[in-house]
Amino acid sequence: MQTTDYLIIGAGIIGLTVARELQRREPGAQVTIIDKEPTPGQHTSGRNSGVLHSGIYYTADSLKARFTRDGNTAWQTFCEQRSLPLDRCGKLIVARNEEEHARLVTLEERGAANGVAVQRLDEAETRAIEPRARTIGHALFVPSTATVDPKSLINAQQADFTAAGGTLLCAHPYRGNHGNNVVQAGSERIQAGTIINCAGLHADRAAHDFGFGQRYTLLPFKGLYRYADPDTEAPRTHIYPVPDLRHPFLGVHFTRTVWA
Prior knowledge:
Elements: E1 2-9, H1 13-25, E2 31-34, E3 51-52, H2 63-82, E4 86-87, E5 91-94, H3 101-113, E6 119-122, H4 123-129, E7 138-142, E8 146-148, H5 150-163, E9 167-169, E10 174-177, E11 182-185, E12 188-197, H6 203-209, E13 238-241
Parallel strand pairs: 1-2, 1-12, 2-9, 5-13
Antiparallel strand pairs: 3-8, 4-8, 5-7, 6-7, 10-11, 11-12
Helix pairs in contact: 1-5
């Protein structure tokens, strides 16, 4: 049976970044990551638009707002240091009718409270940023919103993790908890000093095995992407509608992607 100081379930972007932080804090610790796929980041982490949001959608007293704002800055710095793809294109949030102006004001106030720069634009200023964008009355522009290539981030984090002595066990799916901090990973058993659950959409099942979150179940939603024709001129910035803040969805939007 293998042993390790830290065992992380899941080699997505969360699992890899947690592993790197553990290595920074405890350089001598043994850190092991298990994942069911043959390579890291094969699910949500590697299959998203790569947009680095700014943190204006959430109330400033929430962890989501702070983590989004600080994560935006940290990932942009990481990309700069590693010469990874980074597009600081910003984001337009446009109004479809005058009734949405109140929600635009709320987003503007949340941005200010969370230390995120937000610019109010009129219709002409909006078109100056993106000629194809239309808004009623005014729009918001968030300069700090950017785009990265998720797979480049995952590959860089994986390289750093293994270079620092970490153990990455791909094709080792989490199979269950055997007690005494022993986890079944594929056909192997691993005993860990600490087990960290970063299992993505299966995190609820893993948590239940250890007696946590029994009342909670993850309810995932799948987003669909339609790519523009290669000869279509890309928008100069992300374009989003004003969201209904009662729901965790941002509506149909246009995004700029980057390619490694």
